[in-house]
């Protein structure tokens, strides 16, 4: 009962699940085709299952999985016989083969289509092979869960024809920076199967550790793992479990950089042979394998041989990213090697090195996969390039005829709204440049956005005005192409204010600029929920011919993009908040990879995501329990933590890499830093605030009850603040929250005052709007690991309720 109450609190006690059922079945990813007809099929206490054509091993696995799932609903699984005439519920799974075949490993491009039909004859699944049947079962589980009630399960009559849009739908988990146990990995694999993801990209080697037992080079785990590594038997166990779920496992063995752990164990393989220590800081480091040393390739081949025996998938990821060439540049042996091989620079040396690695991989029937930096015309076309640099890089890769995957925009270690991930499509959109007419006025501004760590982001803003009205805007960030922005004229408080939004590699990016008569630009950029100040100046001369958008891919080039991967790097993630950082939002990312491109309604997505969040909990994912356990760890035993959940609804971890950069500034950007603060157990996104934004939209469309619900929630928050203050005072582990609570309380007071006045029909004067917005921006501009996300929502309420 307590767990159910906590779930409702985490979900903000919304009614969205009911709305989702009324409008669309709560399935995610949503099927390609779903036809629903009148009627329901009731499941009894027994479900008779008949499976034909499926391999024996996977049939046993499916029976175990179904039995485990159905037990929670009081349903017993029984096997059908050819003479069975039982009146009990029936499930028929037919794989379209004449007889059961040998067990098959999942592989790229396998047919995952299926037909799922529920009518008065029962539940029928038809698929071309085991893998389509597995995807159908994943859909059936969601249908069963969403159809439950207190008495029985009534499944809607549906006919579902489904297949994925992309063949490569992955999740990367970094087991290096913080080690993840076998049980936790298996749990994530269960979640992946539920979300129809089919590639587990396992990051196993990096600067901070080597996580795979090696028989040929045992000092890797003996000296460079801190005792935290997977035995070869454990690797085989996980690979076999993933395979039964229909999931491929692609290991990552970082070459030639990110090699500090290798350097600790075998310094003689490094370009600079010297003693190395275990690296526990986060970042990019100098150790590089020596490409001029034959022993380097002997080492690589030995590891590839071991990996080939452990990981049956065709692809092996070699990393290849963020190579710092200093050691190569300072090595006389490497420089001589480059001269002997006519290599002009470090980029050519890395491509040469990769060619040799590719030859080794080919001996073991493996294909090379790596990050953007491996892309080079000297490499064979069968390599797979994974883009962390974004659509610019991915477009170039696809245009050159190479296969690619998108990960930019799916970095889930960065707290970002699920809607941002949902808009992020692996195939770029066809956006046409609108050139100015001769009589139009073109203005251009340059600006810079300093970051907490690293170089500042530089940009240009180009505006087209016609008859004094702003009609189009374009923004260029760093060396990327220009992007057409969405201009929001409603939010301008002055004639010189420009508000725009776009999606960048950093996240959802919103600019609010004041363009003064003195040719100066000031304002802020919101990267997700994080505030960054911006300054700039007007350009005296500007040629609009400079404005070039990212070219769209033609149909043939688009086929080179095989999908994408969500990536979870674990600098700020441990096993204690692993599920909380992955789920439920990866279901929405999985929908982007699986479902048709036209499925883009974020409001509908969120309605289903609320239901899926609870479904994920029901199948054993721990995102809700990890938050509850984390909050309990911050207070004395037997303390009521309901006030913390109420506070959490108003807050979010700071978006983008704000937390990483702050920890770097504080000297806490390393493996030893504790990750047991309140912010570590905050969900990435407040689903309560999402629901309130939707209710605010309803109010804008004439439904006054939308604003009434917003007021009711703010009143509830208001009533809990005394208890929150008391909790923070009494529990030392919460003491750092004192200023956050004070500011959240001030924001809620402002928001409640505005919303109640608006509900009474009183609009806010523009002069008052400016004053209140300045106050809200000052509160929000505090650079913290926790974002006062409710403040941004109150700004929206202010705009809706102004005169």
TrEMBL record:
Pfam families: Glyco_hydro_20 (PF00728), Glyco_hydro_20b (PF02838). The keyword Cell division does not apply. Residues 26-162 form the Beta-hexosaminidase bacterial type N-terminal domain. SUPFAM superfamilies: (Trans)glycosidases, beta-N-acetylhexosaminidase-like domain. Keywords: Glycosidase, Hydrolase. InterPro entries: Beta_hexosaminidase_sua/sub, GH, Glyco_hydro_20_cat, Hex-like_dom2, HEX_bac_N. Residues 166-421, 553-596 form the Glycoside hydrolase family 20 catalytic domain. The keyword Hydrolase applies. Belongs to the glycosyl hydrolase 20 family. PANTHER family: BETA-HEXOSAMINIDASE, BETA-HEXOSAMINIDASE A. This is N-acetyl-beta-glucosaminidase.
């Amino acid at each position: 009962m307590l767990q159910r109450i906590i779930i409702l609190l985490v979900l903000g006690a919304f009614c969205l699940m009911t709305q989702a059922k009324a409008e669309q079945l709560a399935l995610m990813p949503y099927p390609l085709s779903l036809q629903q007809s009148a009627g329901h099929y009731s499941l009894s206490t027994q479900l008779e299952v008949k499976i034909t054509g499926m391999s024996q091993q996977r049939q046993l696995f499916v029976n175990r999985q179904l039995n485990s799932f159905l037990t929670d609903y009081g349903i017993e699984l029984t096997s059908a016989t050819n003479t069975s005439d039982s009146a009990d519920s029936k499930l028929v799974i037919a794989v379209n083969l004449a007889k059961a075949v040998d067990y098959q490993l999942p592989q790229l491009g396998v047919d995952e289509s299926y037909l799922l039909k529920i009518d008065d004859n029962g539940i029928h699944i038809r698929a071309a092979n085991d893998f389509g049947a597995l995807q159908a079962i994943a859909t059936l589980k969601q249908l069963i869960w969403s159809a439950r009630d207190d008495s029985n399960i009534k499944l809607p009559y549906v006919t579902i024809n489904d297949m994925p849009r992309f063949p490569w739908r992955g999740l990367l988990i970094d087991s290096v920076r913080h080690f993840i146990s076998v049980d936790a990995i298996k749990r994530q694999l269960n979640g992946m199967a539920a979300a129809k993801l089919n590639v587990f990209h396992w990051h196993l080697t990096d600067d901070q550790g080597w996580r795979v037992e090696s028989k040929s080079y045992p000092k890797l785990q003996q000296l460079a793992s801190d005792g935290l590594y997977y035995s070869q038997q454990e690797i085989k166990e996980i690979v076999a479990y993933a395979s039964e779920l229909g999931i491929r496992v692609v290991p990552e063995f970082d070459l030639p950089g990110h090699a500090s752990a290798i350097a600790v164990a075998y310094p003689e393989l490094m370009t600079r042979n010297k003693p190395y220590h275990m690296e526990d800081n986060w970042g990019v480091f100098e150790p590089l394998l020596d490409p001029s040393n034959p022993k380097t390739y002997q080492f690589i081949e030995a590891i590839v041989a071991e990996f080939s025996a452990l990981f049956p998938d065709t692809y092996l990821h070699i990393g290849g990213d963020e190579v710092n060439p200093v050691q190569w540049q300072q090595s006389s042996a490497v420089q001589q090697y480059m001269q002997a091989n006519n290599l002009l620079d470090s980029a050519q040396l890395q491509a040469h090195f990769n060619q040799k690695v590719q030859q080794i991989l080919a001996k073991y029937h493996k294909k090379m996969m790596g990050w953007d930096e491996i892309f080079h015309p000297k490499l064979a076309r069968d390599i797979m390039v994974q883009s962390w640099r974004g659509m610019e890089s991915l477009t170039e890769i696809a245009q050159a005829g190479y296969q690619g995957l998108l990960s930019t925009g799916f970095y889930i270690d960065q707290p970002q709204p699920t809607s941002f991930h949902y808009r992020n499509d692996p195939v770029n959109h066809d956006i046409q440049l609108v050139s100015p007419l001769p009589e139009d006025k073109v203005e251009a501004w340059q600006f810079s956005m300093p970051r907490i760590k690293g170089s500042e982001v530089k940009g240009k803003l180009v505006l087209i005005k016609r008859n004094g009205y702003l009609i189009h805007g374009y923004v260029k960030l760093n060396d990327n192409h220009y992007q057409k922005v969405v201009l929001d004229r409603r939010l301008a408080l002055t004639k010189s204010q420009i508000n725009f939004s776009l999606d960048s590699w950093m996240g959802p990016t919103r600019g609010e600029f004041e363009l003064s008569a003195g040719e100066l630009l000031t304002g802020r950029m919101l990267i997700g929920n994080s505030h960054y100040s911006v300054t700039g100046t007007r350009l005296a001369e500007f040629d609009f011919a400079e404005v070039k958008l990212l070219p769209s891919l033609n149909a043939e080039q688009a086929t080179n993009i095989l999908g994408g991967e969500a990536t979870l790097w674990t600098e700020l993630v441990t096993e204690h908040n692993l599920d909380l950082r992955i789920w439920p939002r990866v279901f929405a990312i999985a929908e982007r990879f699986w479902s048709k491109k036209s499925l883009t309604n974020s409001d509908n997505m969120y309605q289903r995501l609320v239901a899926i969040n609870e479904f994920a909990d029901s199948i054993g994912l721990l995102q809700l329990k990890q938050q509850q356990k984390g909050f309990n760890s911050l207070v004395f035993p037997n303390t009521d933590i309901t006030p913390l959940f109420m506070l959490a609804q108003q807050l979010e971890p700071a978006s983008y890499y704000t937390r990483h950069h702050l920890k770097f500034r504080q000297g806490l950007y390393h493996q030893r830093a504790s990750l047991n603060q309140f912010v570590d157990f905050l969900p990435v996104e407040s689903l309560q605030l999402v629901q309130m934004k939707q209710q605010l939209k309803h109010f804008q469309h004439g439904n006054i009850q939308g604003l009434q619900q917003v007021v009711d929630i703010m009143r509830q928050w208001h009533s809990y603040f005394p208890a929150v203050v008391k909790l923070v005072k009494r529990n030392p582990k919460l003491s750092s929250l004192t200023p956050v609570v004070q500011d959240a309380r001030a924001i809620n007071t402002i928001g409640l005052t505005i919303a109640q006045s608006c509900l009474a029909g009183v609009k806010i004067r523009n002069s008052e709007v400016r004053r209140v917005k300045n106050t809200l921006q000052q509160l929000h501009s505090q650079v913290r690991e926790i974002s006062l996300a409710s403040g941004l929502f109150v700004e929206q309420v202010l705009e809706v309720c102004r005169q």
